[in-house]
Amino acid sequence: MQNLSPIIEVDELMQISENQNLRIFDVRTGSNAKENYIKKHLEYSVFVDLNSDLAEIDDPKNGGRHPLPTFEDFIKTLGKLGIDKNSHVVIYDDKNGANAAARFWWMLRAVGHKNVQVLNGGLQVAQNQNYPLSSVEEYYPETKYISDYQDWQLPQVWINDVKKASQDSDSMIVDVRESQRFDGIMEPIDLVAGHIPNAQNFPFIDNLDEKGLFKSPEVLRNLYSELFDNYEKSKIIFHCGSGVTACHSLLALDYAGFDIPNLYVGSWSEWSRNEI
């Protein structure tokens, strides 16, 4: 399917809910994520774990708190989840798509899977619009995912690239964390507060309206056009705390019609353990 919007509305999902190739995934996070999923989730949705399915966690100093798994391991995970190349994947979380839903979307796009969308507003909006809910743990039959590629297809940068960009006035480093974390006033997760030199703060929450829905593509395009003015696409880098929430802004950019810029997966969690 070509020109598929990266965002799907609740009513649109309802209309396709019986499609045989539809695969819905709940990617909420937190200490009780799986238990909360079992208590209440969208009907037929399967739980995906950020830490074990979408990351390969080892040493935060080398790769950050949520480094990507190997390309090969992620392809195997897709098969175990019941996704094949013909699957229409819809992803949601309980944070307006701001957390692991956007990360899963980025990873699927990065293996070449185009038929993937994030549910606008996530669990809360779906529930408010009376989408059918379930408390039965769901599974899809395993498949074999066959990619046309052997490596990630969306642009990334690594800590040495960010080091150079931090000293280059022609580079744009965008930190999507909330302003108090960027300003070093508070740091609830990582060891040190602050931000990467030369970074600008554009909190991911600015992608959403007061109802927790993505702003329109036109509004987002105006917001980011102003931010990106006079910067080459190859010199724009997005990051967050651990390479998860930054994907929410990459999703917003794709929704607004921009090319997806560089993601620094290691993000502040890696940088702050190495470069301060």
Compile the SSE list and pairings.
Blueprint: E1 7-8, H1 10-15, E2 22-26, H2 33-39, E3 41-42, E4 46-47, H3 50-53, H4 71-81, E5 88-92, H5 100-110, E6 116-119, H6 122-128, E7 133-134, E8 156-157, H7 159-165, E9 172-175, H8 179-182, E10 199-201, H9 217-228, E11 236-239, H10 246-255, E12 262-264, H11 267-271
Parallel strand pairs: 1-6, 2-4, 2-5, 5-6, 8-12, 9-10, 9-11, 11-12
Antiparallel strand pairs: 3-7
List low-confidence stretches.
Answer: none
Distance between the termini: 46 Å
Proportion of residues in β-strands: 5-15%
Report the count of strand segments. 12
Number of domains: 2
Major β-sheet annotation? 5 strands, parallel
Structural account:
- There is one protein chain.
- This protein has eleven helices and twelve strands.
- It is α/β, with parallel strands linked by helices.
- It has two domains: 128 residues, Rhodanese-like domain (Oxidized Rhodanese, domain 1, 3-Layer(aba) Sandwich), CATH 3.40.250.10; 116 residues, Oxidized Rhodanese, domain 1, CATH 3.40.250.
- It has a five-stranded parallel beta sheet with strand order 1-6-5-2-4, sandwiched between helices.
- Helix 8 links the parallel strand 9 and strand 10.
- Helix 5 crosses helix 10.
- The longest helix has 12 residues.
- The model has no long low-confidence stretch (mean pLDDT 94).
